[in-house]
Structure prediction request, 287 residues.
Amino acid sequence: MKSGIDLVVLDMDGTIYGRQFAGGISARVRRAIAAVQEAGTPVTIATGRIFDFVRAVAPELGITLPVITAQGAVIGDPVSGEVLYESLIREDDARNAAAWADGEERTTVFYLNSSGGRTRLVQSAPGGGNGSSGWEGWDSSTYNHWFGSPREMHVKLFDVLSVPGVRPLKFITVNDPALEPDQTAALQRRFGDGVHMSRSHQYLVEGTAPTANKGHGLLRLTERLGVDPKRVLAIGDNENDIPMLREAGLAVCMGQATAVVRAEADWIAPTLDEDGAAVALERFVLS
Prediction:
């Protein structure tokens, strides 16, 4: 029986990917993704993670379709490595954000793209020599999981962003709700229309180019593939997934999602720890 779904688009962190699983993805989710593809429904990724990272994961999942990465700022072919679409932050806006980051005691990382799609990671220098790689003092493996590696440490991010020809793709800053309120809206007001701010994680807020979000990425990808967005199943867990959930015909959010994300969903899956993405795939595609 045909499911009525012509494409599945999966967020990564909090949806199919977590540190608690060997290799980052549970066995049940891997089986479900494979079964969906074997049944003839293609699957791809829409994530805040950079193209380099997704290219390493895609073969494990049998994903060969173009992937939406860096919050929609880059769409690329995971097989060939070709960048099919790219949206960069204007240099003046990136320098403005870097100047702000230099004056704040919070870890901030900028992602700078080369012309070949490779990404350079530059981070504000840590606050002390306690073995961590961030101001907040968490262990280095936490920052490596969130941001990727290797990262260059710099005392002044503004100096790095002021070099002619830098190509700022996005930036991430830590915003710990245990220490302060959600900073997403305040940072959006501060940086203005040149940057789009979104919360991508309990502790992380990201800035991209104004039109770089997962919703725009989904529309660009479906146009390229000739797929009706209304026949797309999208699964996500955080506020940066909302534009994608709004564009998809069937929007599923994970069980640990906040109320604002749940309000955008047609169905709420179990949590990441409960293999919620697999449950959704089994229900809406494989059933």
